[in-house]
């Protein structure tokens, strides 16, 4: 079954990458994410979680730049993961007006603030760097539509977990989607914070 009801640009990129049929995980998760529900997505490596994250983010933003404040945030574990995800996003956004920005601890916070101020659509960041931006009023969440965490298993680290709690307390309203290999106790605790009324999708194999 091919990908359905996606923006024409996304379909073009998927076709160019010879991705014609969604994985079992993508078939289950993409319609639920498009519906606007908060969602825990649990599936093994190779299930298509990263492609799902990118595709649903672009779908939410209608593949076009709007305003100056980020409308999508993606949290990742570290600088290396942030830069990898940026590269993956750029494969999908290079023929659109969407602006993807990456922030991490090693990049001076004042540089991040000034560059974000110029206008971005998608912010990829580590929890610590994002929290620091929040504390310094370096990023607005007034237009935020989608907040995703990629490979959220790293949130067993207490400092990262605390940063996520702090960040989400400052966000009035948006959709949250967490991607992980499995549900661990730290991730489950988000249900009593920002993941209220969330749905869960679990896929056991990567096909």
From TrEMBL:
Keyword Ribosomal protein: no
Phylogenetic lineage: Bacteria, Pseudomonadati, Bacteroidota, Flavobacteriia, Flavobacteriales
A GO term for molecular function: ATP binding
Domain Helicase ATP-binding: 30-201
Species this protein is from: Marixanthomonas ophiurae
SMART domains from the UniProt entry: DEXDc
PROSITE patterns for this protein: HELICASE_ATP_BIND_1
Alphabetically ordered keywords of this record: ATP-binding, Helicase, Hydrolase, Nucleotide-binding
Protein name: DEAD/DEAH box helicase
């Amino acid at each position: 079954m091919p990908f359905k009801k996606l923006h024409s640009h996304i379909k073009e990129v998927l076709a160019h990458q010879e991705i014609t049929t969604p994985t079992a995980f993508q078939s289950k998760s993409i319609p639920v994410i498009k519906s606007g529900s908060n969602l825990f997505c649990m599936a093994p490596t190779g299930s298509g979680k990263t492609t799902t994250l990118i595709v649903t983010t672009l779908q939410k933003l209608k593949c076009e730049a709007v305003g100056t404040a980020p409308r999508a945030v993606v949290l990742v574990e570290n600088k290396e993961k942030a830069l990898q995800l940026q590269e993956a996003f750029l494969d999908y956004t290079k023929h659109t007006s969407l602006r993807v920005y990456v922030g991490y601890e090693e990049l001076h916070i004042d540089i991040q603030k000034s560059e974000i101020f110029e206008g971005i659509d998608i912010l990829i960041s580590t929890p610590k760097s994002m929290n620091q931006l929040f504390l310094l009023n370096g990023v607005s969440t007034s237009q935020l539509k989608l907040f995703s965490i990629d490979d959220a298993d790293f949130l067993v680290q207490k400092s990262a977990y605390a940063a996520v709690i702090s960040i989400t307390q400052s966000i009035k309203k948006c959709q949250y989607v967490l991607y992980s290999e499995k549900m661990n106790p730290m991730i489950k605790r988000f249900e009593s914070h920002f993941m209220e009324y969330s749905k869960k999708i679990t896929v056991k194999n990567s096909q």
